[in-house]
From TrEMBL:
It comes from Latilactobacillus curvatus JCM 1096 = DSM 20019. It is found in: Cell membrane. This is histidine kinase. Residues 168-385 form the Histidine kinase domain. It comes from the Bacteria. One of its GO terms (molecular function) is ATP binding. The chain crosses the membrane at residues 23-45, 81-99. SUPFAM superfamilies: ATPase domain of HSP90 chaperone/DNA topoisomerase II/histidine kinase, Homodimeric domain of signal transducing histidine kinase. Its EC number is 2.7.13.3. It is a multi-pass membrane protein. Keywords: ATP-binding, Cell membrane, Kinase, Membrane, Nucleotide-binding, Phosphoprotein, Transferase, Transmembrane, Transmembrane helix, Two-component regulatory system. It catalyses: ATP + protein L-histidine = ADP + protein N-phospho-L-histidine. InterPro entries: HAMP_dom, HATPase_C_sf, HATPase_dom, His_kinase_dom, HisK_dim/P_dom, HisK_dim/P_sf, HssS/ArlS-like, Sig_transdc_His_kin-like_C. One of its GO terms (cellular component) is plasma membrane.
Amino acid sequence: MADYQGEKNLQKVALTAKEKSELFAEGIITVILLLLLNLSIMVLLQQAIVNNPQLSGGVWMIKNAITIGPNESHIWSWQNWFVILMGVADVLVVYWRLIRRYHQMQMWHVIGELHYIADGHLDHRINLRVNRDLQRVIDSVNTLVDSTVRSMEEERKIEKSKDELITNVSHDLRTPLTSIIGYLGLIEDNQYQTKEELTKYTHTAFVKAQQMKVLVEDLFEYTKVRQTSTPITKTTFDMEQMLDQLAASFELEANKKGMQINVTCNPAPLMMEADTEKLGRVFNNLIANALKYGKGGKQITLAAEKIGQEAIIKVSNDGQQIPSDSLNQLFDRFYRVEASRSQETGGTGLGLAITQSIVALHGGYIYADSTPELTSFVIHLPLKLGRRIDPQTAGAKSVKE
């Protein structure tokens, strides 16, 4: 979609043969009317001078009074000067009439362009060179159309996003719901032989119901943090202390997987402002992902550093590398690098989308970087809460530049 490009791309209004004929006729008619008016004035003045001796004497005195040049030469032929003045006035009138008519024709062309756009050709722009006032109107119209098109495109994206969300949620809910209905149906029809089978069926239905509950809770959290109006509870805290507490809370699970969690912070303490509850959700998601998906890894590192007015926090692990073509999509809702991950780990595919939205609410951004040696999620957060980033557009910075 090409926006209005300015003076260098403007085209002069091309008049049609009919319009040129109308403009020529306008000029001829105006000249004829002015000649008749001039002749009438000349005749009336001549008659007035002949019939009025006093006026004739006055004209004679004016002739004698008007002199030019160093020798004070008299101008006797006042008719010539009068004709010249009337000729100049006639030229100005003709020019005014023609330029006025031409501007009207320009307006008709602009109106035609507007009708063309209004008929649905929203990719069209008015690129005509016209008079200054009309040019300002055209610039405003082009800007308005650009804004309208952008709004329509955003609305389409939002609608498409909503449809995709409904489709994904329906798919992810249908799978466990089918299992729940199936096993409960077996119990309802008494299609089990032993108490162990009954326990197995009820346990499976319970596990599937828990999966549905996790998905619904994540979905609720996702939709809530996507709103720019979501309240932020500002708290001043020490980032080093928060990371230490997080490392301690995951220590048992990390030991079971043969992994260690290390914390580094520069400077220490690192004081900043944030909603600690929401930020805790961010780091919980990232550490949990490192434990779930960091296959073969031995170390998880939580590193915080103050640079300027920002705190840069990295959650890294030395596990399996994330494919480069998946890095751009990691923060998309319901995206999983491997389709089997949801079944293996019970993930909903919303964790990183929620993480990104919470970071955006704090005025920061997050991206992922992965090499064979290290996979890192890097978070940039302002030390003091200020302007928020719209979570709807936060994905623009989700990949390392």
